[in-house]
Amino acid sequence: VKIQLALDRFSIEDAIKIASQASQYVDWIEVGTSLIKEFGVQSILSIRKAFPDKVIVADIKTFDNAEYEMNLCFDAGADVATVLGAASAVTIDKCVRSAIEKEKQIMIDLASVAPEKWVSMPVGDHIVWCLHVSKDEQEALHVRQEGEHAALQQVPVRPTIAIAGGITKESVPLLSPLMPDIAIVGSYITKARDPHEASRKVREAANQLEMAQR
Amino acid sequence: VKIQLALDRFSIEDAIKIASQASQYVDWIEVGTSLIKEFGVQSILSIRKAFPDKVIVADIKTFDNAEYEMNLCFDAGADVATVLGAASAVTIDKCVRSAIEKEKQIMIDLASVAPEKWVSMPVGDHIVWCLHVSKDEQEALHVRQEGEHAALQQVPVRPTIAIAGGITKESVPLLSPLMPDIAIVGSYITKARDPHEASRKVREAANQLEMAQR
């Protein structure tokens, strides 16, 4: 189980500083939506440059204008760019095409997409599904969406799965029924007094989850 | 009927240059999603500064992290910031609260929200609804969404309405059944050989629409 470190609500410099402390234990580094919207594509360029050996995820949350936005991310060095599952089918399809053409990946953010609709989402080598409880919803509801596991059972070909939304060392084992390939962790590491130690603990929990899944 | 000029897929400098040519005939100026994602909040600051007398709309398309993103826009001088109707109810509600608190407005972008769901969207002094056919859908489908007019009939209190999606001088009169308060125009003006003349023609059509609606 890979760990994706999500960097949000920092300056680019602070984001890089924190990611450096955690980099030993994380596999993918996410340029958060807030960094992209606050600092633009420069945030992707800078984090790509700071971590040449990591998989860089640009959480651009594309909803329209797919080709332009995918190109922004991929040309800035992102390996993965996100698109909202709530976007139109046309937009999602254009993102898939961009990813295939540029030999990159897209991550479909399923936040606010009812699980019974997931079956219509594309699956493939260039596609990751992200089961995501949004930050605003986490704060209001404190729970994951119902029906996630049942929805995954309906999908004929199992997608690569990332899970996001308030994940901590303690909650990693609870992800087990969803069999994630990637656990996305933000504040638990970035807001920790010791991001290095926090990331080590998440790594340990993720390793144990992986053993349990075998 | 006000005209909102949408600026997308330009450098900040070119966006300001084009908007200057059209400014005489437009009321609201939109910092497009592509400008925000490419150049960050600097795009809002620069366009605010260039057009101190216009209403500035930041098309940030918030989907999560509502308070942070609304503050980014409003603190940079935007009068209106957009939120996706496809976001969770919690996120939309937080955007409404931010707008009220800061005495600004939000625009709810209804792209990819089925018209039968519009009735659940908030309405009020600080809220504009944006009936929007996304760019990717325009290119694929060439039509507006069905059921827009019927959906508006179901809403107990009529919202302030903006309409977007490939609007031209020729299509302005066709908006009449929806009784828009704001017509959002992008490429027809920004890609015109003469943006000044194009904006004048749209202004004329919008004035005629307003007369017809009385």
Characterize the structure shown.
The first copy, chain A, is an alpha/beta fold and 214 residues long. Helices cover 41% and strands 20% of the residues of chain A. Chain A is built from nine helices and eight strands. Chain A has helices at 12-22, 33-39, 42-50, 66-75, 89-102, 135-141, 148-153, 187-190, 195-213, and strands at residues 2-7, 28-31, 55-62, 80-84, 105-109, 127-132, 160-164, 182-185. An eight-stranded parallel barrel of chain A has the order 1-2-3-4-5-6-7-8, surrounded by six helices. In chain A, helix 1 (12-22) links the parallel strand 1 (2-7) and strand 2. Chain A is globular. The N and C termini of chain A lie close together (11 Å). The relative contact order of chain A is 0.16. The model of chain A has no long low-confidence stretch (mean pLDDT 96). At the A-B interface, helix 2, helix 4, helix 5 and helix 6 of A face helix 2, helix 4, helix 5 and helix 6 of B.
Task: Summarize the structure in short.
The structure is a homodimer of 214-residue chains. Chain A has 214 residues and is an alpha/beta fold. Chain A is 41% helix and 20% strand.
